[in-house]
Amino acid sequence: MIEEIEISSLDLQFESYRLKDKAAERALLTSILEKGVREPLQGANTQDRKILLNGFKRYRCAKKLGISIVPYLCLAEDQANGIMELLRLSSKKSLNIMEEAKLIDELKNVHQMSTADIAIYVVKSKAWVSVRTGIIQEMSQNIIKKVFSGQFPVYAYMYILRPFIRINGHNRKEVDDFVDLVSGKDLSIRDIKLLAHEYFNGSDEFRREVKKMNISWALKSMRDTYEKSCECAPFEQSMIKDLELAQKYIRRVTCKINDTRYKSNTFFVQANLLSSNILSQLETFNQALKRFYDKTSKA
After folding, report:
1. Total Cβ atoms within 10 A of residue 69
2. So where are the chain's domains?
3. Which of 64, 69, 124, 180 could be joined to 128 by an S-S link, Cβ 3.0–4.6 Å?
4. pLDDT tens, 42-73?
5. Who's near 279: CB < 8 A, 6+ residues apart?
């Protein structure tokens, strides 16, 4: 049952287990400013505490806006069952795979639960649990901190750095150093990929420059090299630019779409027509992109 509680009564011990996203939080702040906290925060109740498990963005936005009373839903009467209920509902509540991994690590190491027990309680396969256990075991505490604080993009770790590390076997110190150097610089995913490839496979001179925090020089040097190379034909370079633009505007629209300031009928009519056209093309685009991804993955 949803209840109204004092926001100050919530225990935030699991705040570091959830990824931070500044852009999403800014959009949420605008929504809460106009409509209040509409979706209940979720947690686990113990004898003397309400432990927040889901809704940390809503919590921070409410605190910034001076909102002292928030809706709250108790998932369970203890931490372990609260975490498992949240994981069980993750397909609906969209926990990131990294967040799932961190919570499963808590169940295994703090609550001493086995892979089989977790799988049964969250209604997932043992393989599902094991994959997430492996992700956290591979990460150093330094990288976990950088990723969960939003300083290093989770996508860059999962799909660039992690596969690269597993294939090439670089030691943890090298990887930690690289993450420290590029964290918090607002670099694009493509720039991080270029830097990682050259940092781990390139010259000592390049690594020295990056370690001096001369990242702008390093990126310019790589771009100049790629522009002068003949590896990509003009039509291939054009495709790369189109993909970069698609990535940029997908993120941009996703962040702006929840803005509550849209009011005029003229805007809604035009936006509805454009949205309808985009939706009609999404399935074709999604299938084409998957085929293209599979094809390029072979390289």
Report:
1. 12
2. 262-299
3. 124
4. 999 988 899 999 999 999 999 999 999 999 99
5. none
